[in-house]
Amino acid sequence: MRVSRLWAAVAAVVLIGAALTTAFASLGQSGGQPAVVSAAAPAYPPSAAAASASGEVAVEVGINAKGEVVSARSLEGHALLRGAAEAAARKWKFAPAADGASTGTARLTFVFRLREKGDDRPGLSAVFRPPYEVEVSPPAVIEKSNN
Description:
alpha+beta; TolA/TonB C-terminal domain
């Protein structure tokens, strides 16, 4: 009796895992865009937070047939945020090309948003929004010095 319950539990975990994998793999598939397998959020650069730099950074990534990012280039966004966005974009992984294509591209958007003064709540510093957007905040409010 215990063995059959164990196998039922194992089967349920496998089915749930397969469903989640399928759902995650389909997140980026719209209009021929590659599906995201794994994504990385950029760290909010301390120099950008200290300078109150915020906003969106658009990064175009080149993707090989294996789904690996082979290039990352900022198209727009604040200069103090571009390096962090490009570094994070290089860590993304996409589903391998199923149609025999050797390469592809995707446009990722990284949103850098400063926390409001007095917002010291612990919480997520990154929020992922399908298919290709990530919003990040610094871990704490950085107040500018008037010296």
